[in-house]
Amino acid sequence: MFRSLLVALATLLAAPALAAPPVWTVRDADSEIVLFGSMHVLPKDLDWKPPALDAALAQADDLWFEVPMDAAADRRMQDLAGAYGLLPPGHTLTSRLKPRAAARLRKLADRLDAPMSEIERLKPWMAEVRLTTAAFAQDQGLAEGGVERRLQAAAPPKVVRKAFETPDQQMALFAGATEADQVRTLNATVRQLEKDPGAYRRLVAAWSKGDQKALERAVVGGMRKSSPALYRRFIVERNARWMDALQARLAGSGRTVVVVGAGHLLGPDGLPARLRALGYDVEGPR
């Protein structure tokens, strides 16, 4: 299910040393919200922060993430992954796959140095996370180098940290998907990583350049086409819930910075398009 979120189109492009991902600014009479689309995993050598984001953080009253970016939330996510990501004792992942798909999985795991003894114990959604993480690591992508981690550390102490979801709510999104959907997206991710092992760098390059069309195709286009139910679950329904919090914030006053996965800001279901449709003044890419 991470294929559309984390894997891009075909040919490898090296990411530039200096990036300029887009920023959206939403204003009313007494409020301002700056929206920034995150890459959760980034190469450590990428200088990605736009000046507009630095300026917004310096003046912000609050900073919103998808889930809290603190040690307690990290521990909770690890506990939940153990509780919901493992198959029952005696069950194996490959027994849930067709023979050809199981063979592809074994070959990819070997290439990524991900032990099959570990992969076999995982539910399909967790196996997809594990393989994608291994692929990113081979391509110098570091979780601690992602946008949220850096902003959590860099934002001034006075800025209140908030979150749209709890770790339990986010984990339920993944663990609650049907096994058929999990297997379908796991197989798609395995095929994509097999055919295009350098796709991560291309995705980072599109994000770095603010190429909205390429990002929309890579991040949400595939999911919208191949798994409409997951697209609704992961993008449409979450954005609708988050809009309630954004509108409540705009009904008050002050300055807010929102940092969520880039897929939540793209296309007609993205947060900027939803806010424009409600009549708010939104500066930034269309």
From TrEMBL:
Check the UniProt entry and state the signal peptide residues, or none: 1-19
Keywords assigned by UniProt, alphabetized = Signal
Organism superkingdom: Bacteria
UniProt xrefs under InterPro entries: TraB/PrgY/GumN_fam (IPR002816), YbaP-like (IPR047111)
The UniProt entry's coiled-coil ranges are none
Name-wise, this protein is TraB/GumN family protein
